[in-house]
Amino acid sequence: MVTDNSFDVLIIGSGAAGLTLALHLPGHVKVAVLAKSMLEEGSTLYAQGGISAVTRATDTFESHIADTLDAGASLNNPDTVRFTIEKAPAAIRWLVELGVPFTPGTDSGDKFHLTREGGHSTRRVLHAADATGRAMETTLAGAARARANITLLEHHIAIDLITGKKLGLAHNRCVGAYVLNRDQQRVETFMARNVVLATGGASKVYLYTSNPDTSSGDGIAMAWRAGCRVANMEFNQFHPTCLY
């Protein structure tokens, strides 16, 4: 049981985003990662298809960017698209070094076995057999468990962010969160110099969805209550076969 709930960085969410951030922080930084359920449970675990990245000499960033903007009906933020695509190869290399077992190439000369999915003009989707998300999440979780500076708290649900405004202070900086410890059935106060929301989406608000129960939009709601801007809430992704 945690007795000191003060951290340098409090990460709310234990999927690929949250664990990746935790692993990239220096070893002297005191980090806490909150998981609503078990550490590995979440949307990352159930993702099957793969990850798109430019890894072949015949592929280009510009082609990947054009495909992405076209698939998004140009509603995407071009700067965000470019940033993500140009950083993708380095992210893949980091995941490989961490131990994610991407399926290797066969006789094509490619390092990885690449597939072509909807919206892509060429093969650029890496995968780990047919359970890419599970391979990523279990690898990231294992690496996080091995880090002495990372405290992993399962069955902890963030209820609301603590801001200066809510405390009656002049500033409105986020300084922590109120968290339900499900095992102890009590609300605990977590304080942190930096609070990160890595809580995923809200697709579980729909009756029919292939996403897990944890995808309930808690982080978006907490951010909105704290004064953050919320946009593009109409965009939710889940596998269309669950509608038929």
Helix content: 25-40%
Q: Count of DSSP helices?
A: 6
Beta strand count = 9
Write out the CATH superfamily name of the largest domain. FAD/NAD(P)-binding domain
Task: Let me know the largest β-sheet.
Answer: 6 strands, mixed
Level-1 CATH class name of the largest domain: Alpha Beta
- Strand order within the widest beta sheet: 6-2-1-9-8-7
Mean pLDDT: 92
**What is the CATH architecture annotation of the largest domain?**
3-Layer(bba) Sandwich
CATH fold name of the largest domain: FAD/NAD(P)-binding domain
Quote the beta fraction: 15-25%
How far is the first residue's CA from the last residue's CA?
45 Å
User: What form results from the Cα inertia axes?
Assistant: globular
Work out the count of structural domains. Answer: 2
Reading the helices and strands in chain order gives EHEHEHHEEHEEEEH
**Content-based structural category:** alpha/beta
Unreliably modeled segments: none
Rounded Rg: 19 Å
